[in-house]
Amino acid sequence: MINLKNKKISYVCGILPSKKIQSIDNPNFDEKTKNKIIRLSGIKERYILDRNKNENMLSLYKQAGEHVVKRQNWNKDEIKGIIVVSQNHEYRFPSTAVLLQEELGLSKDCFAYDIVMGCSGYVYGIFAAMSHLNEESDKILLFVGDPINDFIYPKNQSVAFLFSDAASCTALEYCHGFNVQFLFETDGSGRNAIIVPHGGSASLINCESFQEYQDSDGNTNIKTCMEMKGLEVFNFTFKNVPNMILKILEKNQLDIKDINKFFLHQANHYALLQIKDKLKISDECFPINITKYANTSCTSIAILLAEEKKYHQNNIIMAGFGVGLSIGVALFNKLEFESELLFAN
Question: Which residues are in the Beta-ketoacyl-[acyl-carrier-protein] synthase III N-terminal domain (predicted)?
């Protein structure tokens, strides 16, 4: 367990793209199949980047970042660093964080770098940003987002109805009395449970990358899009996430009832309900919004926080989990922040 002291989340801005699509409009499945998937997932609509309007992640990050800086009334020259967490950055190089330094007009003295992380990315991003905070480096912007639908094959029944693109900006500050404990689990043996097989240096794009194939579950896919072994991911989530939460509570001599809110990655509605029931968490302590915004990948915890508007409570859990396979759990002794959920303009 890693303890970080005097680190605070001050403001969270989540942002969704302007284009909303209806799950029922997917032309690749019959009405019966679509209605069944919608009924089981609870996801009737999703948000995707509107490429016809030149909408991209950088434009979402910029809108969210400008909103946060304005609401915090920060002097841009005082912002010491930018971190961007995503599975899919704007370019292979340079980093998206470097682009944001110019887009936001921040000082050239600030540090800026990207992290490649998926479903547990928000917790990892908070950890990374807070690791830099001190009396001298006291203001940092964390951007977390993913254009996940760029890597979803619309004929793949297991994922075609699940995801929304989204982004976020979180303001973090050095502040006495705000302490966080982090617990991580990494299992690289599960790398193939959620994977885009082609496009990285291990398997370069070739003429076979765009040929349709049937995965082990019978779903139609191509090698440049996400392949997910749903049962394997669910089993990992259902077993390991509750255990990690209980472990961090035990180390702090706390019980489930001592936690005011559990902000979990919005992976799958059924999986979330199973975790809630397994840990015997009350509805009011366990916010769920996947049926409103779908699975927004590494951004989903930030979207949950963005809906809070104004929050001040003690003993809060955040947990991200998925691709890797990986889990990140954070226990905050207190959270005090304002937030806003925006839509791209």
Answer: 113-176
Structural domain total, the chain: 1
Q: Between the CA atoms of 225, 35, 24 and 50, what dihedral angle is there, to the nearest 10 degrees?
A: -40
Helices (H), ranges, the chain: 31-41, 57-72, 96-103, 121-132, 230-251, 269-279, 290-293, 300-306
C-alpha–C-alpha distance, residues 180 and 195, integer Å: 31
Tens of pLDDT, residues 124-183: 999 999 999 999 999 999 999 999 999 999 999 999 999 999 999 999 999 999 999 999
Q: Which helix (H) or strand (E) holds 48?
A: strand 45-48
CATH of the domain at 199: 3.40.47.10
Instruction: Print the domain residue range for 310.
Output: 1-345
Give the residue among 123, 122, 11, 110 at the shortest CA–CA distance from 67: 11
From the list 134, 144, 168, 183, the residue with the least C-alpha distance to 7 is 134
